[in-house]
Specification:
The chain is α+β, with helices and mostly antiparallel strands and 377 residues long. The chain folds into 2 domains: 239 residues, FAD/NAD(P)-binding domain (3-Layer(bba) Sandwich), CATH 3.50.50; 128 residues, D-Amino Acid Oxidase, Chain A, domain 2 (2-Layer Sandwich), CATH 3.30.9. Helix content is 31%, strand content 25%. The chain has 9 helices and 20 strands. The strands form 6 sheets. It has a 6-stranded mixed β-sheet. Strands 13-14-15-12-18 form a 5-stranded antiparallel β-sheet. A 3-stranded antiparallel β-sheet has the order 8-9-10. α2 packs across α3 and α6 packs antiparallel against α7. The chain is globular and about 65 Å long. Flavin-adenine dinucleotide (FAD) binds next to α1, β5, β12 and α8. The site of flavin-adenine dinucleotide has 35 residues, from α1, β5, β12 and α8.
Length: 377
């Protein structure tokens, strides 16, 4: 039986026929955008996320690629993610907006604390099995499960892993109020800055406060310090094994001596306001060390299963393109399933998605590789 559905989520009223169902693995930026895009295109969507529902933090991201969005869905997602105004945003602010949209969309079921262990498919459907033995079926299954994707292992068994690029990025976001008034940037200071250090460099950005205020004292300073001297530490702590990044270095696991050395290096390298922002992050242990990995895809699809976001293409953050590429994946996928996904139409739709996205996905990663080859160790 065919059903019709009136969707009133996101103040974006539309009536669409329910065309089928999708399971999305991962509810970070890419998974949420994909879920929202597929719901708009007429699918019932279940998003499965291994993490709990507690808010998480991350880096500052550029949400405005300068590219003209081709589809209504791409425009919609960009407006939603950016809040309609910002060109740079805190990961947590973007995630909160997308998450609120997904949670209020009656066609989306969002499950936290749900770790997918196995992915399977046959000629009729694809499904995910969790570590608790629950099974979630869909006409299609989309892997938005990041740099260590298990869905990628099925889609590209010949090339399952992203490769460590030989450096990490320390990232944090600091409230302007947490640094001395005399060092706070003026209202017309550049929003982005990229000073060279001694063999390494920093990306500093000034973004609105969590409440959206851009008044002096209310803003936040995001910093990302590219550092190629911590590889032994990363291997010793198990963050990198062989060529594969296992996990990020969380503040509580950073050795005291590393923090002392980092503070000394920062004092030698960086000018204000970034020096105070970094020292505050170190003193309050509010920073994350992210080992950088890269992945150039050979394919994005196998049967009823596809990969999007960092699972599909993992460029160095220096390209500032991962978020934008994830948004284009989501909107392209939605466009491709418009004609329906019942029976063999599912595999045809996903192959069309691959043909539209693969070249760009490869290019964005390759564009950052010459930097990684010269900077990484
Ligand atoms: C320091 C840094 C700075 C960046 N700056 C920029 C920038 O300026 N501009 C830009 O465009 N991009 C930037 N990026 C990249 C951007 O953040 C990502 O490309 C984008 O957020 C998409 O990530 P994702 O959702 O695909 O993956 P992730 O954020 O890795 O999400 C994967 C999700 O899947 C979940 N998951 C994994 N395995 C399972 C499982 N088995 N079962 C269930 N759930 C699972 C994880 O818990 C996670 O929530 C930056 C990245 C970093 C690290």
């Amino acid at each position: 039986m065919r059903t019709h559905f009136r969707c009133e989520s996101n103040n974006d009223n539309f009536i669409k026929e329910v065309k089928g169902s999708a399971v999305v693995v991962g509810a970070s930026l890419s998974g949420l955008m994909t879920g929202i895009a597929l719901s708009r295109a007429g699918l019932d969507v279940t998003i499965l996320e291994r993490a709990g529902s507690k808010p998480r933090s991350g880096a500052v991201l550029q949400v405005d690629s300068g590219e003209i969005d081709r589809t209504q869905t791409a425009k919609f997602l960009r407006k939603l993610a950016s809040g309609g105004i910002s060109s740079a945003e805190a990961w947590s602010s973007i995630q909160l907006r997308l998450r609120t949209a997904a949670e209020t969309d009656p066609r989306i079921t969002l499950r936290y604390d749900t770790r997918v262990q196995t992915i399977k498919q046959d000629s009729d459907s694809a499904w995910a099995v969790t570590d608790k033995g629950e099974i979630f079926h869909g006409d299609i299954l989309i892997g938005a499960d990041g740099h260590r994707s298990i869905v990628r292992r099925l889609v590209a068994p010949h090339k399952p892993n992203a490769t460590f690029a030989g450096y990490l990025i320390w990232v944090a976001i600091v409230g302007e109020k947490d640094i001395p008034e005399k060092h706070r940037p003026s209202l017309n200071a550049p929003k982005f800055t990229m000073p060279d250090g001694i063999g390494d460099f920093l990306l500093g950005s000034i973004i609105a406060g969590a409440d959206g205020s851009t008044a002096l004292g209310d803003r936040r300073l995001g910093w990302a310090w590219y550092d190629n001297t911590q590889n032994d530490l990363l291997r010793r702590l198990g963050c990198v094994e062989g060529d594969v990044v296992q996990y990020s270095l969380h503040a509580q696991d950073i050795p005291e001596q590393t923090l002392i050395e980092l503070a000394e290096k920062a004092s030698d390298r960086w000018a204000q306001p970034w020096l105070d922002a970094i020292l505050h992050s170190i003193q309050s242990r509010n920073l994350l060390g992210t080992p950088i990995a890269e992945y150039v895809p050979d394919n994005l699809v196998k049967g009823r299963i596809a990969i999007v976001g960092d699972a599909a293409h993992l460029p160095t953050p220096l390209t500032a393109s991962g978020f934008n590429a994830s948004l284009q994946d989501a909107s392209t996928l939605a466009e491709c399933i418009e004609k329906g996904i019942k029976g063999s139409a599912a595999t045809e739709a996903l192959l069309e998605y691959e043909s539209l996205r693969l070249k760009n996905a490869r290019q964005i990663v390759q564009s950052g590789q010459s930097f990684s080859r010269s900077f990484g160790r």
